[in-house]
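We close this part of the discussion by returning to an individual protein. Part of our work consisted of pairing the sequence of a single chain with a tokenised description of its backbone. No coordinates are needed to read the tokens, only the vocabulary itself. The amino acid sequence and the backbone structure tokens for this protein are reproduced below:
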Amino acid sequence: MLGIVAAVLFFIAFLINAADISTNQTFSSVNVMLLGLTALALHVAGIGSTWSRRR
């Protein structure tokens, strides 16, 4: 799930950068990209990717 979130954040960062959209400092393309890298790192670490089922 976090891998999909990372892909969406990377796409948003790409659109902000490619369209040269002027945003405030919070939503700059670099900050969105860093959020995507954080989500990707959590996904690779195994957080949020396992299904827990109890019987």
